[in-house]
Amino acid sequence: SHQLTLDLNTLNKLLCLSERNSMITNIYTDQPYPDHPDRFDCMSQVLCRESVCGRCYLEIEWSGIGARISVSYKSISRKGS
Length: 81
Hints:
single chain, two-stranded antiparallel ribbon, little secondary structure, 0% helix
């Protein structure tokens, strides 16, 4: 198994990171993160620093109403209207 690391430079300002940068909460209030060209500004998203390839799987723990998990290319658009 391999632990993925969340990329703080991509973290949307409506997300709060906690528990040693391993848990994300959508808090609907802008956080004072510094501007960064890789930061998502439209959608509540964050990327991992590491890439995955070939056959792999994810183990994710979540609680609450729901969660949205996706796999994307690094080239995904980060700026929107």
